[in-house]
Amino acid sequence: MKRLIPSIFLATVFGIFFILVSCQPKSSTPVAEVAELEKAYDLYKEQSIDHRRFKYNDVIHLVTKRKQGFLVEEIGRSVEGKSIYQMTLGQGPTKVLLWSQMHGNESTATMALFDLFNFLEGENDGFEPIREKLLERLTLRFIPMVNPDGMDQWIRRNSLDIDLNRDAIALASPEAVILKNARDFFSPDFGFNLHDQQIYYTAGETSTPATISVLAPAYNYETEVNDIRKRAMQVIVGMNKVIQQIAPGHVGKYDDAFEPRAFGDNFQKWGTSTILIESGGYPNDPEKQEIRRLNFIIMLHALLEIAEVQYTQYSLDDYYSIPDNSIRLMDLVVRNISQSKEQHAYEIDLGIRRRESDAHGSFFVSGVVDDLGDLSIFYGFEELDAKGLEVVEGKVYETPFANVREITWDKAMGLLREGYLGAKVQEAVDRELHSLPLIVLKNGNSISMGIRTGGNPNFFLAQGGNLRYAIVNGYLIDLNDNSPQKLMQRVQ
Ligand SMILES: [Zn+2]
């Protein structure tokens, strides 16, 4: 009897405790609302960057000149002698390494890292609880711009023409040695491998761009899943949930075929739960600023989920159900173009992709017919149904202009409406860049229509004899629309 009262007492206490525990917020409570993360981005976006082709010297101060807090250390130099830095912040037991731009022309995540650095240094903004949690529970280490030489040349590879992401084992390049040493010294629990992919990837067999593609890379050919890889998959599920709220459907899963020479695959093998983020394309976002914003939001969210160990709630089924990457996009698809040959008319779809080339510290594009025929499985960022329209060859305006600056947008549109697709100039300094809806020629008197694979498409589409659209270097110009677009062109 004597022990009965304490037992009842204990049972009551446990009962109350149980009720209290079950009233606690469920583990699926988000670590932060999307609106809050979006607000953080608006506050901390690094305003000095608004395009993706920035150079090392223009941004390196964003690494080296941080406020107190970041420990910034040079950890080696590139082939051409540019310093590569690691930046460390936080004192937590869970170590996270994030590295960007091992491929020189993949800069989207680097921009988002600069934004994230600003956020991590912020104060008196209401984000203190988030920031404190991150820095108490995590030790964050960043290596932005692993390939500064490639970045300055705007190429994927380094200055020795080595693909750093195929050099994790051979370690022939100094940049790969730097990244490998950084991993070995730090032994991170989590790694974020930050890249850009082609803008033409879609989420599965749909027309929706894979704006972000994700992968927990495999650590063997069998693509097995151990606890290390499983954690990476779970973090990805959390990231996917956030993107679905902002850009529904815009997530693809990168191919998980094991690449024994790649860093992500080897990080996973070496014991770091590794998450690959690939920034793809998004409509009307040629400079990838919306994609940069998404990067910031999902990285911050993922770090919070890691800090709170919230990712463990996610099932791997939700990882596997992310649609696979597929390449289904073109810049422009013109459907049902009528082509005549030997007195017969044929209907084809024309798929155009634009290739970028560096020039004058900027770039220009060349529209190329990537494919033609039945393109029903492909989609365009822009599409036009040309059914019922006639293809018309463009003329070159005979009287030369003195230079490109003499041709205004309105003048160019006027020439297009009169059937001129090209104009000549007397002077063109080093074939300068321009953004006119017209082919500007230094030499030459004619413009080929280019309706063949590999061709440079330039022609008009007319309806009942009236010119309706121009295809200029693969850009679609609506002749009834006067609002200027920015075409990236060069004098030819
Ligand atoms: Zn890459």
Automatic annotation (TrEMBL):
Keywords tagged on the record: Carboxypeptidase, Hydrolase, Protease
Residues covered by the Peptidase M14 domain: 49-302
Family: Belongs to the peptidase M14 family.
Protein name: Zinc carboxypeptidase
GO molecular function, one term: zinc ion binding
Domain of life from the UniProt record: Bacteria
Organism classification: Bacteria, Pseudomonadati, Bacteroidota, Cytophagia, Cytophagales
GO biological process, one term: proteolysis
Pfam families named among the record's database cross-references: Peptidase_M14 (PF00246)
